[in-house]
Design brief:
Layout (H helix, E strand, L loop, with lengths): L5 H63 L5 E3 L6 E3 L3 E5 L6 H4 L5 E5 H5 L3 H17 L2 H11 L1
Antiparallel strand pairs: 1-2, 3-4
Length: 152
């Protein structure tokens, strides 16, 4: 077995040091990645919990609106006037539910039949009928109140 020169020994020593430093850096990066994944997991769990809470609040709010405006278990659609059982009608929103400040505002919701008023016709004059309904019920200022809230 031939003996190694000083230069070869130095090169091997340097290579071992660099390999060791690379391993240390890799371990540090793995730890950072694990911490990041843990944080993402926690955020994801919180997001899912918030989503479940929003869904439950939507369900309870809808039931409240439909119950508030029912007579003997029947509700009248605020846009077309159709009278339906409380379980066959929605709580329609004048300002879309994506606006959190008005999502559960009781003046922003009223009973609406599922089809067509709440899901198909809002762009075909039904929104105007909903607006008139709200103004008749709460006064003209309700529109400004809801719009201002939704813009914040």
């Amino acid at each position: 077995m031939p003996t190694k020169t000083k230069e070869q020994l130095k090169a091997e020593s340097l290579a071992k040091k660099e390999a060791k430093q690379a391993q240390l850096k890799l371990r540090a990066m793995e730890r950072k990645l694990a911490k990041s994944l843990e944080k993402v997991s926690k955020v994801s769990k919180k997001s899912k919990a918030i989503g479940r809470l929003n869904a439950e609040l939507d369900r309870v709010f809808s039931l409240y609106i439909r119950t508030r405006d029912s007579v003997n278990g029947m509700c009248k659609c605020c846009t077309c006037g159709k009278v339906l059982l409380i379980g066959a009608i929605n709580a329609g929103h004048w300002i879309q539910r994506s606006k959190k400040r008005t999502r559960w505002h009781e003046k922003n919701a009223a009973p609406q039949c599922f089809m067509p008023c709440n899901h198909k016709l809002m762009g075909n004059g039904e929104h105007a009928k909903f607006t008139v309904y709200l103004m008749d019920r709460y006064g003209d200022s309700v529109i400004r109140e809801l719009v201002d809230l939704s813009l914040v």
